[in-house]
Amino acid sequence: VGFLQHCCCQLSKMGDTWAQVPWPRPPHPAMLLVSLLLAAGVMHSDAGTSCPVLCTCHNHVVDCSSQRLFSVPPDLPMDTQNLSLAHNRITAVPPGYLTCYMELWVLDLRNNSLMELPPGLFLHAKRLAHLDLSYNNLSHVPADMFQEAHGLVHIDLSHNPWLRRVHPQAFQGLVQLRDLDLSFGGLAFLSLEALEGLPGLVTLQIGGNPWVCGCTMEPLLKWLRNRIQRCTADSQLAECRGPPEVEGAPLFSLTEESFKACHLTLTLDDYLFIAFVGFVVSIASVATNFLLGITANCCHRWSKASEEEEI
């Protein structure tokens, strides 16, 4: 299976090269098959055991960390299970980069300069369980970021200071996810929909974000309070940055009483009273302006009469 997988991956990458090879006459099908198998066998022996430059490879572990890399290594051993690209200067991961590495179990991309990941990056990473994207420059987590990566158990998105938005369906389908770290980012709001589809969640880190604890946060906080016994959270680090009346308050200290104002509704009597008060204020305003006008007119006449008497 690994051999055929390697053939498919390598031949798909070399499709353009094969297309440019000049054939003097139509090759015999048997000869063509032999040629392809021989070529694939050579590639398998090379790519299956070779280790990228500046990396170390041992027991299915490829370590390319702390090498000042600006891009990901182009080819990895086909049986790579643990890939570390941490502590580099990588700014982007090309689309389809993980297509050939279906045995990948751990991917460490922490402390790089990633601003986003290409859609469908994890489509073929069925066995990926641990993903570390901390200490990068991610600005948002889109809906398709972890598409088909249903085996993920641990995701670390911490220390992404520009992370402002997590799509409500960002973690959709990750039923095995146990640990999620969203701490020390730029999140002011997180929708309940983003988390309620994670039945196996055990640890949630959300501290160090500028949370705005307004009415829109109530559903999430209510859900978290109900799960606090089953889900460990960094409650000491999670604080409200606004509105002013709850600034500095621990996120998990807010109760239903804190959001009482969000549920105030006006009855018909309330609307009638407001309308009556508005009407009275309007009449009072008109009457006040009328009195001020009469007073000003009287003062003007009195001043004019005084001037004529002096003359």
Q: What tags apply to this protein structure?
A:
alpha/beta; 311 residues; single chain; 9-stranded mixed β-sheet; disordered N terminus; 6 helices; 30% helix; 11% strand; two-stranded parallel ribbon; 13 strands
Biggest beta sheet attributes: 9 strands, mixed
Distance between the termini: 120 Å
Number of distinct beta strands: 13
| Helix fraction by DSSP (H/I, runs of at least 4) | 25-40%
Number of helices: 6
Global outline: elongated
What is the residue-mean pLDDT, rounded to a whole number? 80
What amount of the residues lies in strands? 5-15%
Subcellular location: Cell membrane
Membrane topology: Single-pass membrane protein
Signal peptide: 1-47
Subunit structure: Interacts with KCNMA1.
Plain-language structure description:
The protein is α/β, with parallel strands linked by helices and 311 residues long. It has helices at residues 2-13, 15-19, 29-47, 193-196, 218-227, 268-310, and strands at 56-58, 61-63, 82-84, 106-108, 130-132, 140-141, 154-156, 165-166, 179-181, 203-205, 211-212, 232-233, 240-242. The protein has a 9-stranded mixed beta sheet with strand order 1-2-3-4-5-7-9-10-12, with no helix packed on it. A two-stranded parallel sheet has the order 6-8. Helix 1 (2-13) packs across helix 3 (29-47). The longest helix is centred in the C-terminal third of the chain and has 43 residues, at 268-310. The model is unreliable at 1-7, 11-24 and 29-47 (pLDDT under 50). Residues 1-47 form the signal peptide.
